[in-house]
Here is the input.
Amino acid sequence: DIQMTQSPSSLSASVGDRVTITCRASESISSYLNWYQQKPGKAPKLLIYTASSLQSGVPSRFSGSGSGTDFTLTISSLQPEDFATYYCQQSYSTPPITFGQGTRLEIK
Amino acid sequence: EVQLVESGGGLVQPGGSLRLSCEASGFTFSRHAMSWVRQAPGKGLEWVSGISGSGGSTDYADSVKGRFTISRDNSKNTLYLQVNSLRADDTAVYYCVNGGSYYPLDYWGQGTLVTVSS
Here is the structure.
């Protein structure tokens, strides 16, 4: 199974900050990497698919990059509604679909 | 508008069974792979099972293989998960999700809580 490792596990930042979250796969997954946002008590929401494609309706301050084993999710200017937990997920080698452990983004 | 509405969760004793359902609307259900993803309290996301659009291909996480069965009724636009031999570590919110295999998980239901406890 492909293991997904996110860093950091938690992050404190302020409104307006630029934030980057990293996801590393245990082997190459080409660009089959997706990012999700989850707010407390809510279902996850797809933000980015195939590493860099923005899901419809997602603000352009979110962007993704990377290929192979190393990927990043960047929020260019944090807004109050962006404080949430973020997960990466690989869809290259399935089953199983595997997720990173999550990155909790908190208000500083 | 895509909607996925789960039902069937609840409190069950260890060793018990439940049947989770997910009613889909707003898209051509039979053309889409579907998945179940769960989240234990305070924990991360875990993929549980997936099924092809036709229902002819199914996959399971090792942690549930032999105990859980995924199925679908395309005439009713409904996805199911039969969960048997439940254990305490199966306690989680179970999400019905559009997508799977090589495809992103692009729409999620609100989840149904399964609690396994005596």
